[in-house]
Amino acid sequence: MIVLHAGLMEGEFFLWGEASPAKGTLTKGLRDKRKTRVRLNRDNLLPYDAGAEALIAAVKTTRAAWKVNKKSIGPIHVWVPTDDGQPFPSSTLIAESPELTSLTEVVPWKVTSLRLPREWLVELLCGCIGKQTLGPGVILGKDITFWAAALRFAGALVAKQQFLQEPRDETGESFAGSEG
Fold it and tell me: For the chain, where are the alpha helices, taking DSSP H only?
């Protein structure tokens, strides 16, 4: 099972996934001498990272005719609530959440991601509208359902012609930046 997530970073849309970790991979983190900050594992790899193969398999459940390019897959950092070196999963279907303490903090973790071209993004989000699952064993995270709802709202505004256009003069030049 995989929980899909999506986010926007530096003008590009990324898809990443969470899966249950292999048994024994979640261990308690170590605190530094001041006992205030978490020391993370060496490369900060999220223990729930689904990995490239599972991510590609999840995307294929959309039945879209996408050809995933190896250049589109790579690591990004996501900020996850973490307590005692253990990140919180987005769902209890992935793993049990650690208990909250006064030392819980939001920490960057490295995950495998798939950069989505705009045409794939629209197709993916349209396929997610009103759904909680994308296919067998592929659950949509709350962030991706938000993006799908935002796309639906934007589409409704355009369909109803409820949008503002930048004012232009008779030559087509924008009034923006002119004194007036």
Answer: 51-60, 118-128, 142-159
Compute the distance between CA of residue 78 and CA of residue 36 in angstroms, rounded to an integer: 21
d(CA 26, CA 39): 14
**Collapsing DSSP states into helix, strand and coil, what is residue 56?**
helix
Checking phi first, is residue 148 left (phi over 0); if not, alpha (psi -120 to 50) or beta? alpha
Scanning the structure block, which residue is given the tokens 């900060």?
A: 44
* Measured CA distances, 177 to 46, 67, 133, 174, 180 (Å): 46, 43, 46, 8, 9
The sign of the dihedral angle between the CA atoms of 45, 51, 55, 56 is: positive
pTM for the predicted model, two decimal places: 0.75
The two structure tokens encoding residue 131? 């759904």
Tens-digit pLDDT profile for residues 17-65: 999 986 555 544 444 444 444 455 557 899 999 999 998 888 887 766 6
Would you list the DSSP string of 72-121?
GEEEEEEEEEEETTEEPPSSTTT-PPPPP-TT-EEEEEEEEEEEEPHHHH
Q: What is the pLDDT of residues 111-138, one digit of tens each?
A: 999 998 888 888 888 888 989 998 888 9
